Amino acid sequence: MQDKETSRRGFIGLLVIAYSSIALYIGGALVSFLRFLFPYAIYEPPQKFKVGKPEDYPIGTITLITGRGLWIGSYSEGFAGLIAKCTHLGCKPNWFPLKDGPLGQGIFECPCHGSKYDKYARNFAGPAPFPLRRAKLSLAPDGRLEVDKTEVLEPKVKMQDGIEIDETKMEDFFLKI
Predict the structure, then answer these.
(1) Does the structural domain 48-173 have CATH classification 2.102.10.10?
(2) Residue 136 Cα to chain centre, angstroms
């Protein structure tokens, strides 16, 4: 067997390859570490926002606030901010103003599993265990309705014949003007 001597140029080439490999490895680890320090942020729309003046919502209408996951219900008793998320699996129910429900015309119906809610967002059919949640509504100083989705009315207890809601909190979630 014959020993082949490595030339100086060949040795330097091997060193460059070895050091480059090490530098790439360390650089990749450094990039991963820096990405950990600066995570991607998912920006959500603000949870407190204004939706218009009360006169923009005629009594007896349910209006979808596009991009906010919310309906504004305008009733003879006042206004309600109904969160557009089914309490069964979180799908977005649709509003059908011409379908008959237990309280007359108008029902919310979930397209996923058929849960149905009356015009006040109380569940009356399907697998949904609770009514639609309500966001807190208030009247801003400029006269517009202000929705606060950080404060949500949750049903207190599921009863055999329906849902019991804490009446002391109900006034905060039903704006009377």
Answers:
(1) yes
(2) 15
